[in-house]
Write a structure and sequence with these properties.
This protein is of the alpha/beta class. It has 8 helices and 10 strands. A 4-stranded mixed β-sheet has the order 2-7-5-6. The protein has a two-stranded parallel ribbon with strand order 1-8. A two-stranded antiparallel ribbon has the order 3-4.
């Protein structure tokens, strides 16, 4: 019996949405592979059995919240749910591809730029959703309708720093970093640090560069 896999949806920074899946075997699965079918009989009993729907989340607040909401929604409709939280993006993706997860919330920007290595070419959210859903369909991963919320990255500075250095916009911030020859301390989560549309893209677009030892993750 072929295990049916679905995945959630949402929108983020350079266009992001959700993501769904169909079972796909991986050579080196990052998570234990499930041996149960989504339905069938409990071993040795002849009693109809339906395995719980396995939902995965990444390791930050928005993912915890949306994962819990998906679990509640399914449970209220009579499904048994197994919620697995706190995965890295890479592990979550591998778990979807190898079938050890049934459902997750994913972002089109992450899929297109990080998982499949494409470049951002100014696509609108709808265009990005179309590209990512068509790309993943070839792997048996099904994207559900997008959740129209937004998870855009932003640079945060204190009000005191803003007033003292007249930094009101990203362009102002870029000029400030250039005036300090890149010697500005900057803290980032690892994903924004590594993503092509994160710190690297920010520096390229605004024409500045942090000195390496001034950026911490």
């Amino acid at each position: 019996m072929f295990k049916k896999i679905l995945v959630g949806v949402l929108l983020i920074s350079l266009s992001v949405f959700v993501f769904a899946g169909g079972k796909q075997e991986a050579e080196e699965p990052a998570a234990p592979k499930k041996v149960e079918e989504i339905s069938g009989e409990a071993p040795g009993t002849g009693v109809p059995y339906k395995a719980p729907i396995s939902i995965g989340t990444k390791n930050f607040t928005e993912q915890f919240l949306v994962g819990s909401l998906m679990a509640i929604l399914l449970e209220e409709r009579g499904y048994d749910v197994e919620l697995k939280t706190g995965m890295s993006s890479t592990v979550l993706r591998e778990a979807m591809e190898n079938g050890s997860l049934d459902l997750c919330m994913e972002y089109t920007g992450t899929q297109w730029l990080s998982y499949t290595g494409h470049a951002f070419e100014g696509e609108s959210p709808k265009e990005m959703y179309k590209k990512t859903s068509e790309s993943d369909a070839k792997k048996g991963l099904i994207w559900l309708d997008p959740i129209w919320c937004n998870n855009t990255y932003a640079i945060a500075i204190t009000a005191e720093f803003s007033e003292k250095n007249n930094v009101k916009t990203l362009s102002d911030f870029a000029e400030y970093v250039k005036s300090k020859e890149g010697e500005v301390k900057f803290a980032s989560d690892f994903e924004f640090y590594a993503r092509p549309d994160g710190i690297l893209g920010l520096q390229m677009h605004y024409g500045f560069a942090f000195k390496p030892n001034y950026v911490t993750t």
